[in-house]
Amino acid sequence: MWNLVLEQWSMWTRDKGPTPGFAEQCRQLTEARAAFDWLRTGSQTVQQQALRDFNEAVKHFHTGTHRRPTWRKEGLHEGFRIVGPQARRVEQLNRKWARVLVPKVGWVKFRQSRAIPDAKSYRVTRDRAGRWHLAFAVIPPPIPAPGTGEVVGVDRGVTVSAALSTGEMLTCPGLSDREQVRLKHLQRRLVRCRHGSNRRRRVKAAIAKLSVRAADRRKDWVEKTSTDLARRFDIIRVEDLRVAQMTRRPRPKPDPKRPGRYLPNRRRAKAGLNRGILANGWGLLVRRLEHKAAGRVEKINAAYTSLTCSVCRHCTPENRENQAVFRCAACGHQANADVNAAVNIAAGRAVSARRETPPRVSPKREPQHATSA
Predict the structure, then answer these.
(1) Structural domain boundaries in the chain
(2) What integer pLDDT is reported at residue 320 of this predicted model?
(3) Tell me: the pLDDT tens digits for 313-357?
């Protein structure tokens, strides 16, 4: 239903008048269900909810808050939403199991991962590994602040997922070495498989299981880390990073000397960096912090935070010896580079309140004669 209404919306022209709204699409759906048996076998409630969801997506797109609605693909966007009185038909079987009445399907038993909330809707989805999930739509209350007045800075990285200004360095778990070897082996097998064959389908399913396993570990780490930070600190300061723009693939560079050819743009190195950023959950961590610690997350400008000394505020590229070691060229302060950046992030609001000028980068040729800010 989503793809059908998206096709209608994409092909609509101005000479046809206004685009059909939700009410008109529901009338068209009734006529289509009377004409096509395959459409009539599905639940009309679920199909109308898909039309309502698409209508909301178009409104958000026109207001500029969301992206343009795209096609839903088989195996990636499998699922539907149940809203209304039917969503409240949930029965508790025992401490671990319950069942829900799905329209046109019947009673479906599911295993609980937490207590069933009082929700007005739920969504049934299927991931790439073939697992079915049932999620109730409930907005949980934010975690209350401890009231201690403590401020923490969080520096996100690839080698160290999150370095705190307190000196803690957190690492997001991923696939083990053995699992990475198996993933590489399966990817090589996938290249040799024939398109549309059963062997290719089995190999893709095995790769999807490993990918889902890594995603589950990342989400679990993000949930535990965000909850711990929201409970321990009153103010949480992070770098103001645009992760979506940072993980885009590099644009091709045309070669002016050879028409039709392109210059090297280091796309392989950029692809590896993108995988590292996404595997550490940079955007998901901040998003969950904003949900759990509402109004207590502050985004600080990330300029020069990794090159500035947290003690004397001296800023120069020579301060950063390598990825892990920070040694100030002016005062000799030595610390972990990520922890030093996290301390600068934690003090970001205080520096801007004093209206100090931003630290200037001294010339590379004379790092010893630069004065502290």
Answers:
(1) 2-63, 79-136, 151-251+268-300
(2) 86
(3) 888 888 888 888 899 888 888 888 999 999 999 987 444 433 343
Would you mind telling me the total number of residues written for the chain in this entry? 373
- CA nearest neighbour of 310 among 342, 346, 344, 335: 344
Cβ distance 243 to 304 under 8 Å?
Answer: no
DSSP output for 290-351? HHHTTT-EEEE--TTTTTB-TTT--B-GGGB-SSSEEE-TTT--EEEHHHHHHHHHHTHHHH
3-state secondary structure of 156: strand
Token readout for 32 is 């289509």
Are residues 221 and 281 in contact, defined by beta-carbon separation less than 8 angstroms?
A: yes
Contact between 331 and 318 under an 8 Å Cβ cutoff? The reply is no
Inter-residue contact 247 to 203 (CB < 8 Å):
no
At 64, is the secondary structure helix, strand, or coil? coil
pTM: 0.81
Q: Which two tokens stand for residue 150?
A: 């403590």
Does the CA dihedral 310-312-313-316 come out positive or negative? negative
Across the range 29-53, mean pLDDT stands at 92
Contact criterion met (CB below 8 Å) for 183 and 207: yes
